[in-house]
């Protein structure tokens, strides 16, 4: 008879843990769930930067209307991106001076450094190794557009009926702005100048292991507090 009260706290502890155990299981399941798929597009993005300094800026005008100045640097990167905020910058840090060192200035023209980054196998339509990145110095008329500068050093170019740039130097051979389903994680990390985003940089969309462990600790501490309070009453 005397042992009955002592078993009540233990039973209460087990009841609390049993009641909250499903919550822990749900958190663990959501934490392990894969990232949701997202739609991206495979295309050539257009970038600008000034001279020998500063980072890449996503161009607000298309290459057929943007007019870079003498000494400017323009870049093109082929990759899969969800939108302009997610677009991958061209790799490499070569500035105007390095790219156009062997092209002397000439009256009535301007020199524009052109950076061409054909992307990686992961972005290629057939997942084959694309051409290596390269730089060119375009010497064009003073009023030339970025598209004209590109055409001077990277033919053949291919456009679609909506004037979207589809291919540079014949790459890729087909397709134009094709929709691609991504994991939602592969392009989540920031794309800094001169490098690629880490494949592991994005979040999984669920709670972390630390959060799950913390919740488990809270549950156990809560149960222990209830047990202690019950014990004092007994």
Automatic annotation (TrEMBL):
Membrane listed as a keyword: yes
Entry keyword set: Membrane, Signal, Transmembrane, Transmembrane helix
Signal peptide feature range: 1-37
Disordered: annotated segments: 179-205
Stretches with biased composition (Gly residues): 195-205
Domain of life: Bacteria
Transmembrane spans: 208-227
InterPro entries documented for this protein: GPS-CTERM (IPR047704), SCO2322-like (IPR047703)
Name this polypeptide is given: Secreted protein
Organism: Streptomyces violaceusniger
